């Protein structure tokens, strides 16, 4: 389930992998340290804000909560934490 108890990896697998798995449409690919490094350097507050509210960057457009606005903020943040851990 995607409740508060859901792990970041679960949420990633349901809502983020469609773009971040293969790096579709400019999305930084999971585990791509070269793409993630400068993003991680921005700090978690910016990464959370961009994942929750969406933004347009140099490579493309990140939709708010990946387009799944029913997701809890805590689950989106946990998915970011998972992606950051894979990008280090
Ligand atoms: Fe994303 C980016 C997260 C889904 C597309 N993203 C991103 C980031 C993050 C994320 C953290 C980084 C930021 C910065 O750098 O600041 N996502 C995420 C999550 C999810 C997602 C957690 C689930 C919820 N995405 C998604 C989807 C898509 C995307 C589904 C498609 C549709 N993204 C994206 C892009 C990008 C991102 C394109 C890049 C932009 C630029 O340019 O930078």
List keywords for this structure.
single chain, 88 residues, mainly alpha, Cytochrome Bc1 Complex, Chain D, domain 2, two-stranded antiparallel sheet, 2 strands, binds heme B/C
Explain the layout of strands and helices.
Layout: H1 8-20, H2 33-40, H3 44-53, E1 55-56, E2 61-62, H4 73-86
Antiparallel strand pairs: 1-2
Helix pairs in contact: 1-4, 3-4
The structure holds heme B/C.
The site of heme B/C has 29 residues, from helix 1, helix 3, strand 2 and helix 4.
Domain Cytochrome c: 3-87
Keywords: Electron transport, Heme, Iron, Metal-binding, Signal, Transport
Protein name: Cytochrome c5 family protein
Considering DSSP H and I runs of 4 or more, what fraction of the residues is helical? 40-55%
Q: What ligand molecules are bound, each kind once?
A: heme B/C
pLDDT < 50 stretches: none
Pairing-aware structural class of the strands and helices?
A: mainly alpha
Computed CA radius of gyration, to the nearest angstrom: 12 Å
CATH top level label: Mainly Alpha
Mean pLDDT over the full residue set: 94
Number of helices: 4
Protein name: Cytochrome c5 family protein
Keywords: Electron transport, Heme, Iron, Metal-binding, Signal, Transport
GO molecular function: electron transfer activity; heme binding; iron ion binding
Domain Cytochrome c: 3-87
Structure write-up:
The protein contains four helices and two strands. A two-stranded antiparallel ribbon has the order 1-2. The mean pLDDT is 94. 51% of the residues lie in helices and 5% in strands. The radius of gyration is 12 Å and the shape is globular. The chain has 88 residues and is mainly alpha-helical. Heme B/C binds at residues 15-16, 18-20, 25-28, 39, 42, 46-47, 50-51, 57-63, 65-67, 76, 79-80, 83.
């Amino acid at each position: 389930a995607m409740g508060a108890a859901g792990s970041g990896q679960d949420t990633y697998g349901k809502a983020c992998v469609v773009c971040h798995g293969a790096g579709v449409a400019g999305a930084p690919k999971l585990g791509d340290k070269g793409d993630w490094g400068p993003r991680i350097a921005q700090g978690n507050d910016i990464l959370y804000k961009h994942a929750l509210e969406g933004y347009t960057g140099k490579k493309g457009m990140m939709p708010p909560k990946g387009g799944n606005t029913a997701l809890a903020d805590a689950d989106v943040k946990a998915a970011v934490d998972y992606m950051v851990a894979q990008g280090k």
